[in-house]
Amino acid sequence: MIKYIIKRLLQMLVVLFVVSLVVFIFTNYIGDPISMLLPEDASQEEIQQAIRRLGLDKPIHVQYGIFVKDILSGNFGKSYVFSRPALELIIERIPATLEIVITAMIIAIVLAIPLGVYAGAYPKRRSSKVIMAGSILGISLPSFWVGMMMIYIFSVILGWMPASGRGEAIEVFGMRLSIFSMSGWRHIMLPALTLALGNIAMLLRLTRAGMQENMRQDYVKFARAKGVSPKKVLFGHALKNALIPVVTVFGVRIGQLIAFTTITETIYAWPGMGKLLIDSIYMADRPIIVAYLMLVAVIFVVINFAVDIIYTLIDPRIELR
Amino acid sequence: MGNKLLEVKELRTYFHTFKGVVKAVDGISFSLEEGEILGIVGESGSGKSVTSFSILKLIEEPGVVEAEEILFKGEDLFRKSEKDMMKVRGREISMIFQDPMTSLNPLYTIQQQIEEMLKLHGNFNEGQRKERCIELLRLVGIPNPEDRLKSYPHQFSGGMRQRVIIAIALAANPKLIIADEPTTALDVTIQAQILKLMKELVYNEGASLILITHDLAVVSQMADRIAVMYCGKIVEEGSTDDIIKNTAHPYTKGLLNSIPRLNKNLNRLEQIPGMVPNMFDLPRGCKFAPRCKYSKEKCLVEEPKNIIVGRGHRTACHFPLKEGYILD
Questions:
Q1: What's the CATH superfamily of B4-92+174-326?
Q2: Which of A15, A135, A279, B310 is deepest in the core (most CB within 10 A)?
Q3: What number is the ipTM of this complex?
């Protein structure tokens, strides 16, 4: 186990190195931070000064060298726009993103798994067909459209929920979270539902496919012949065997959501990481983009690690190697 | 002996598929006495497995089970609710499946899978359950049962798994065990061991056994009585001795002749010509007529009735190999 963790950490270092190199080089070619930062009528001298100040006059390999050296001392560079450390800016935004992603994924699991089990166990019932038709809709509707419709229906017409922004945040364990306040809840429901919708559909379909396959297996029939109740046959025997692909996709999706909830965060003006990334790309704020993508790489490695551990908890035939 | 444990009357299991209706089991009747071993023999697709699942009402859509009655200890299983059936399954009637590699849930330990049965059908505390698990594993001949409780199915060989399955089937002291081709997936040396074990256990526990197999040789060593099935019907039923020595139905004769024997010097084994008919398009008269060397015109148009050819020995044939009288 310890050997496995060490191996995973080394793997992560390699991944981080590659990501930093690729991202650093390519962001160098997109956008021009100087023209975004300085007013249009800036003099040639001011431009030269800004280039020197940001270190953009040096050749790219020297820039990368400085970048790596700084990282090793814990410095990810300063944002061109905010003139503050890039990592600090990102970390500030993490709680906001985490809370909508986690709320969305909880909604997704709570709805998708039981519906998937039902649709997989009784595929011929009309209600199963309705569920499956609904899931097609959930997969194919783009989140920007769903987001706008939700705002239109629940905020504009019904007036139940606020249309955008984040509710009152309270400091919990050193993080500023809004889910513990009433206004926070009212603000979080629409963006979380928007994020959840596509995931409900996908997890539901995976659960159903796994259930249909496992319901035909002998051990399910054997369990029934033992006198096990239908509910326990479904959830205790068949579902557990159907979970591996669901967990895999769940891991990937939660990583993607944490890293790239850009569209939903933009629609609801949610002050999360995704919105920061979009703004930074727009402003060619390279230090934030690089630090952001490296953080995303770390998040994915950690999630994959967690998924591997969950595999071994579900299936004794899988070992950590 | 002498007390009827199970009485199946006019059992019909039809599968309503897109292509048409498959009459997998078509009006069979048989009975079983306490402590008796009944062998049900037939080719693939003759309806023998469906029969066993029908008794426990484990047939799934598009299958539909109909029966005049399925009396078990005097109670009609056919009219029992699904909830009541859950108390019969495992506790009163348990099953052993064909393929031990797939019958156990790969994600639970052996102990969990035996205990599931004990939790459902008994009042044991945790310690007693563990004791009983060890006792059962020892009973089915698993060495060092204490150490194997926490093992998973994939850590066992096929023969060992089938022993575990037998242990599960015995866990709640059922009155009847239905074994559906219990040794087909095992290699020959293990087959003999498992069969011997089953016969001993059934005898010691005072249970009855329905042994379903396509292997007439296996069944003749095990069973007190044999029912031969062909295309969803019982074509001959009688004591093992009668079936083997006083064979009445040409199909049974054919099966017997195709068993290899060491004491007879034959160059070629006999075989039954032709194939099992398409279940969607069964012959009109006797289902076996197209393959039967004794068949006459009558066989092709009229379905044969049951004929009594001896004490407790009946066959469904127009021209049985033994004299008898028609029963209606």
A1: P-loop containing nucleotide triphosphate hydrolases (3.40.50.300)
A2: A135
A3: 0.88
